[in-house]
User: What shape does this take?
Amino acid sequence: MANIGFIGLGNMGGPMAANLIKAGHSVSVFDLSKAAVATLVTVGATAAQSAKEAVTGAQFVISMLPAGAHVEGLYLSGDDPLFDHLAEDALVIDSSTIDAKTAQKVAAVAAQRDINFIDAPVSGGVGGAVAGTLSFMVGASEQQFANAKPILDVMGKNIFHAGVQGSGQIAKACNNMLLAILMTGTSEALNMGVKNGLDPKVLSEIMRLSSGGNWALELYNPFPGVMPNAPASNDYQGGFQTDLMFKDLGLAMELSQLSASPTPMGSQARALFNMHKVKGNGGLDFSSVIQQYQDQD
Amino acid sequence: MANIGFIGLGNMGGPMAANLIKAGHSVSVFDLSKAAVATLVTVGATAAQSAKEAVTGAQFVISMLPAGAHVEGLYLSGDDPLFDHLAEDALVIDSSTIDAKTAQKVAAVAAQRDINFIDAPVSGGVGGAVAGTLSFMVGASEQQFANAKPILDVMGKNIFHAGVQGSGQIAKACNNMLLAILMTGTSEALNMGVKNGLDPKVLSEIMRLSSGGNWALELYNPFPGVMPNAPASNDYQGGFQTDLMFKDLGLAMELSQLSASPTPMGSQARALFNMHKVKGNGGLDFSSVIQQYQDQD
Amino acid sequence: MANIGFIGLGNMGGPMAANLIKAGHSVSVFDLSKAAVATLVTVGATAAQSAKEAVTGAQFVISMLPAGAHVEGLYLSGDDPLFDHLAEDALVIDSSTIDAKTAQKVAAVAAQRDINFIDAPVSGGVGGAVAGTLSFMVGASEQQFANAKPILDVMGKNIFHAGVQGSGQIAKACNNMLLAILMTGTSEALNMGVKNGLDPKVLSEIMRLSSGGNWALELYNPFPGVMPNAPASNDYQGGFQTDLMFKDLGLAMELSQLSASPTPMGSQARALFNMHKVKGNGGLDFSSVIQQYQDQD
Amino acid sequence: MANIGFIGLGNMGGPMAANLIKAGHSVSVFDLSKAAVATLVTVGATAAQSAKEAVTGAQFVISMLPAGAHVEGLYLSGDDPLFDHLAEDALVIDSSTIDAKTAQKVAAVAAQRDINFIDAPVSGGVGGAVAGTLSFMVGASEQQFANAKPILDVMGKNIFHAGVQGSGQIAKACNNMLLAILMTGTSEALNMGVKNGLDPKVLSEIMRLSSGGNWALELYNPFPGVMPNAPASNDYQGGFQTDLMFKDLGLAMELSQLSASPTPMGSQARALFNMHKVKGNGGLDFSSVIQQYQDQD
Assistant: This one.
């Protein structure tokens, strides 16, 4: 069993840390929210008073933060950068979803200082974090990936080695852009079919088994009533919020711009989620974007 | 075994008729191309001198024509409309991919005259036509669908009952629009990842197993070399041509316009296939649209 | 002064016919609405009991109908096609906005029969029709254009000779697609600037005088309060309805499809007007599309 | 006459500084390129050995740099930040086109330290810089704007006061996004009309005088041969490069993302310029984007 420092105990980080504890690891946790720390203590975590304290002596450091600026601030440029306080041979796993450029920048500094820093953003949502079935997309060397895998296995089901440092963020940006395209496209096709008289369940099934088949039709149908357990059948509560998809699409657009990779479809999807968001739907599950297509009652 | 009149023996219609013959049906065939008729005769078809002759006495009439104008001309408004020459209780199965409006118009006339006319467009391409593994999307009553199914089973694998007359065309337009979205979206995500250093096989596998999963990543990867048997690995030869996808997207746009169903993603995909087509790629498999994203060598 | 038969007395046709009467021409009018005919009679028109009666003996025939099917029905394929009843040397001016394909088809039949048929769709809205300041985009031979011009001058200000038959419809489709792009683009730029703290009047003025300058910023600002007389400052009443712009964009898309002319921007604009329309705004002036961008109150 | 420090002597900055000298001002110049400095010295500038030396004692400091990072590095965070070396009451005019966020950040620091820092990005290209006919979009207080105006008048023709600090960058991002929309939209409409048989000059003139009228049709027609002096008639040499438009659209997208302002049309335009760029056209004038629409020869 390992000593793990865990920083960032939000909706995702909290249950991820809890799963590590459940698996028998010693986890020292820190978050700016004392309530979040307290919750983890009740399931067996050790409360740290600072990020520095959380990582002291840790073999693994895991961070789960909102954006690149936080990650850079934590490790490199804040008041007391963690890179100055890591145990020798510690492996730092940043599971935050951030821009690839910052991930690469922090990794480059780490490499200069012989620190093991890898990016391992997740997908699977809060449900996956609780169930320990997240997907991890990892940017790391072969050795680092091998070292991280047993720890990631505790929190996830699919652990992908995407490539060198930064590749985890790149893979996630690509995947989530594609997801946004699938969801809007599926919404659009379903809406057109239904508006022309087709039954949403019948059309969903036809496309699922034909060349229109995709993840949304398999597991996350945006049309209310087609899948009882999908957010669409629960007033678009829970799931993956529109605001978060909009954030992820911003990361994809930044990657597109920096690498001059054309993204006509991803850009279109971003515009649709943006239009959905400004109408007050940022807090709804992202599959609610189908409402942008539907006739107003 | 049934007497079948088959009209339209192109790349799709030819092998479809051949499969009916192989299954033991008596098939009388007609096409404006004598060569096409002759080819079918060599595998056991009876050559008809006219469409009228082909349908005389047939229990099933199957047509496979390029566009709505041909279908309307054949059955309703040509020199010698077939609706005047059908056997009593004949079931007419139009497998052409045409606009829903024409399908509904012809079906409405049929209904007035107590003629059984159903729409049953296919997907699966020439390969599926030859192998007898097409998908049929059928617009018909329950009874008509039940009557048609044994015949369709000979030519296809998945026989879907989409709804009432016209629903087959609507379902196909929705599905193929979604397919165009999936293919462009997948191309775009793969190109961005690869341009940022990821391996196309690795990224394809990550997205296939994640929320970006879709038919293109399962069976029809647009990136050369990822799937040995996909058109992408064979210089985009064979498969489903860009020109045909562009035609299908035109049908989807017409449906969108007539029903005022918003199609921002489908419209975007149509523009991309159009741009690809005007650069001289209309004859390549539609997955070659990824070239619109790639850096010129 | 000329004998003119005028068919189609809607919001546009009515005031156009009235201007011809005012200029001293003898105008025989027909419309399916008896009220519309009656209104024109009060300003000096002769009521015809049928389209045929309206055109009997007329030197000029002008039609103003909703769509291609009506035009084709009136002249070619209806119960009593007008092409059978025209005076020798009559000049037929179709000012309906219809698809170019139908305009070309009707013109081709006319040419075979030595009938002068030209397309002359208008822009300028009801206001322009009343004021006699419409723009006409004319598809005609040089001679036909010269013959039509004195009549068109009565109803319009700018009379453009776009080219041969059908060119009027093509020019209008191109212009109105571009207008839709200008209006959505201007809305988008203004919204982004204002959301970031700029004054809409100041930003409008800067862009108007810079490389963003366009017709919308000159005459039809979509932001409420910037131009007192624009529909935007009058709750988007009057002007050019969203439904009509959506129709025109449908014609542009059909032209794009038939000629395989890529229209990524026009397609995008069509999607935006469609999304605006399904939210119940079809009856508002088309500049209200800016509401699709704005935060919900 | 004023003492002016000028930093950044590229294609734009060089002629701008030259115009200040021509008007009688004393200009001390600095650039990393010694050749650029030497060129300015030949027209009367004083060569500075460092940015610090250039601004020492200057009443006005003008910078013209490629991106936000350079501006922030120069004034705030580099080895020897200029904010430590300004004369009392100096007015700093940053004419670089950078992201609004950085402009606001630098301005905020300036405000804390009682330094006058304003953003004044330009449009008008190299031609405008040489001719002294640039447009300036200025983010400044009323007093700062009044102080800057006599200096800006030397280099430009239209000097706009867009609002408080950062507003110049915001206005420019909005305007150039709209310009990209106008240019792609105009290209698209012209291509469709010409492909359907219209004369490009005739269609251009019709749309210019109708509701499709815009800056591109007035001054910068993208179709070769319509305007003899436009880049389109000169193999798309000179003018405003595709690469620069792509950069500006990146700034607009960043602004869109940070403020959640929907930009479906601007995003579409960015995708088109990106696709144009990856085909090797980054160095051509941006109106060459029309080639993306045209049939390959």
Observations:
- The beta strands of chain A are 3-7, 26-30, 46-47, 60-63, 91-94, 116-119, 122-123, 134-139, 156-163.
- Chain A has two domains: 3-164, 170-292.
- The CA atoms of residues 131 and 155 of chain A lie 8 Å apart.
